[in-house]
Amino acid sequence: MTSRRKIREMIYLGLMIGIAISLNIFESIIPIPTPVPGAKLGLANIAALFVIVQFGPREAVIVSVIRTFLGSLFSGTLFAPTFFLSFFGGLMSTLVMGLAYRLFKKHFSIIGISILGSITHNLTQLTVASVMFSNIGFFYLLPYLLFFALPTGFFVGIVTNLMIKHSTFN
Q1: Domain count, the chain
Q2: What pLDDT, on a 0 to 100 scale, did the predictor assign at position 38?
Q3: Domain annotation covers residue 170
Q4: Is residue 42 situated within a structural domain?
Q5: Is residue 43 in some structural domain?
Q6: In whole angstroms, how far apart are CA 129 and each of 2, 57, 97?
Q7: CATH value at residue 142
Q8: pLDDT of residue 85
Q9: Which domain holds residue 77?
Q10: Which of 8, 10, 44, 57 could form a disulfide with 24 if both were Cys (CB 3.0 to 4.6 A apart)?
Q11: Which residue ranges in the chain fall short of pLDDT 50?
Q12: Confidence (pTM)
């Protein structure tokens, strides 16, 4: 890779980290009227999925990890239970989306991969909460969270498709 392309990639990844943090903060301040605790739009996954397609899963994991740390640092929740839920949910969903994109991109659309990431995020968060609090009862929320995962994953996939279509990186 030429040094010019490498610098350009670093700039894009820095921008994606900034966008992911901004979306994460924006999402935390908008009220979502839902009876399900922890249901979110997952807007930061737009950046993760975009990076998977444009640069690869490894880079997307880096963006996701940095976003989680900095977002939690800015919101004052670093190493609180919400940090661990966000960290592991974001990490696992990024890994699953990256794997799905790499292995099944001919069979799954970006929207399908995004929905898979959304579902993975919810399953991971419920698993982490169950382990942290030694209570498997958190899984009673699964049907409700999946109800939100489908439309939010669909929306994230649509936005990511638009970003890819209008990207000037390549």
Answers
A1: 1
A2: 64
A3: no
A4: yes
A5: yes
A6: 44, 26, 22
A7: 1.10.1760.20
A8: 92
A9: 3-165
A10: 44
A11: none
A12: 0.90
